[in-house]
Amino acid sequence: MSVYSARMAIRPILIAGDARLATAAVPVTEFDEELATFVDDLFETNTAANGAGLAANQVGDPRAVFVYDLVDETGTHRGHVINPVLETDIAPSRDMPDPDDDYEGCLSVPGERYPTKRAVWAKVTGVDKTGAPVSVEGTGYLARCLQHEADHLAGLLYVDRLVGRYERAARKMLKRHGWVEPGNSWLPGTDPDPFSD
Fold first, then answer.
1. Which residues are catalytic?
2. How many contiguous H segments (helices) and E segments (strands) does the chain have?
3. pTM (global) more than 0.90
């Protein structure tokens, strides 16, 4: 029996301030049972955290992998992308976001939300856990999620994209929480859900 055939595991999610979240991911070159189990772990962790998506570096793994699992006005979207390449209809913008419609949160900035400008349409191409080509594209919430997860793998948190008063507020919030240094994490399913209302 393989060591990797055991059940899925929920992994701790790193919180802002950890250098692994600010480090670009490394391409995946081995497509094996361990990778498949890791993808399952990402799904399990994301589900336990009530997340829309989760990138590998959020659980301390350097590989270029993310999962997504969300519902929007067009339906249910669930999948994973390895070695993703992002394409959008506009370049990232420093324009002010709409404070009513552009709110975004992150499992690595737990419990916080800020208006964040994103492209309306996005497409990600890459491969799945077997090495087969995959492509996912969408608008609205799915497009926001794809951009958010691709940013993680580039070493960016959504708070790095904030502008104006939102950028200033986020900087103060990070200091207030002590999320400017490594060593902080939370465990979905064990720790309280930081986004529950």
1. 149
2. 3, 9
3. yes
